[in-house]
Amino acid sequence: MKILVTGTAGFIASALAKRLIARGDEVVGLDNINDYYDVRVKYGRLKSAGIKRKKIEYNSLVQSKKFKNYRFIKLNLEDRANLERLFKEEKFDKVCNLAAQAGVRYSIENPYTYIDSNIVGFINILECCRHNKIKALSYASTSSVYGLNESYPFSTSHSADHPMSLYAATKKSNELMAHTYSHLYDVPTTGLRFFTVYGPWGRPDLALFLFTKAILENKAINVFNYGDMQRDFTYIDDIVEGVVRVIDNPPAKNPKWDAKNPDSKNSSAPYKIYNIGNNNPVKLMDFIGAIEKKIGIVAKKNMMPLQAGDVPQTYADVSDLIEDLNYKPNTSIKKGIGEFVDWYREFFKV
């Protein structure tokens, strides 16, 4: 297949692109390479896929030096004209949209960035899919959509109508927008609610990266909600496996869907929502303990209250993933943290 993967300077999309390339798909990666976090990591991810920094120019396709079936383009999703041109010229079979402005806390301080990237950018993707006969669109949502919901584990059949951050609200909006296009134009769409993704090449704004960096630099780490938190930490390879299975299995219309008792996870349209999580929440203090054990240093800790927009617990119900795609993430925290710390030491030479 010929697949457009957006966000390929980012964490999940860069790993996904490599997986698709390795199995023989023709992949075009897209990213605007913004400076939300350390761009050294973003360019490092691109370099690992054979995309040289000095070759990158806005709205210009760059051929990978490592893979004949991979090209990259620097482009904003908000750039409607050039995005439309890219779709028209490349004639993609499928699209996986993982590009977005991420971060719960950052959305409180920079709301318009999220509207531009996650709402305007996403409608541009939907319109391009509609007008170019794309066979299927998969896209990143987030576990943050569950918001105030405290019914654990989180199920895609549960309400996700009470978000606690603008970031979560934009992702819930994406799900609603996607359903509209599935219903009106028969575009098969699948939303992926990711749960706390971690692993090599992970984002510098997330806990594992921040904790590892601080411990190695002999600095204190910030432990929110005084450590009384749980997260369904999900290893990057497990996430990618789930995404690949979704790409290969576009949703069909559910003939048994009941409009009088609607289930939010699917529809009479070709539409589906999946959780992709480890289905095994880990206490934050145990997570920190695993990092300390791998590095061999006990962290200094600043115990702090819960931050605005954060939730005390995430826990994914992945029964649909098992039933539909015969898949369940299963990488252990010990293995995942070990792989990340080894990557971090190698990349930053510490």
Give a short synopsis of this structure.
The longest helix is centred in the middle third of the chain and has 21 residues, at 111-131. The protein is globular, with a radius of gyration of 20 Å. The chain is 39% helix and 16% strand.
Tell me about this structure:
This protein has 350 residues and is α/β, with parallel strands linked by helices. It is built from eleven helices and 14 strands. It has helices at 11-22, 39-48, 80-90, 104-109, 111-131, 166-185, 207-216, 236-248, 284-295, 319-325, 333-348; strands at residues 2-6, 26-31, 61-63, 70-74, 94-97, 136-142, 189-194, 197-198, 221-223, 230-231, 234-235, 271-276, 282-283, 301-303. The strands form four sheets. The chain has an eight-stranded mixed sheet with strand order 3-4-2-1-5-6-7-12, sandwiched between helices. Helix 1 links the parallel strand 1 (2-6) and strand 2. Helix 1 packs across helix 8. The radius of gyration is 20 Å and the shape is globular.
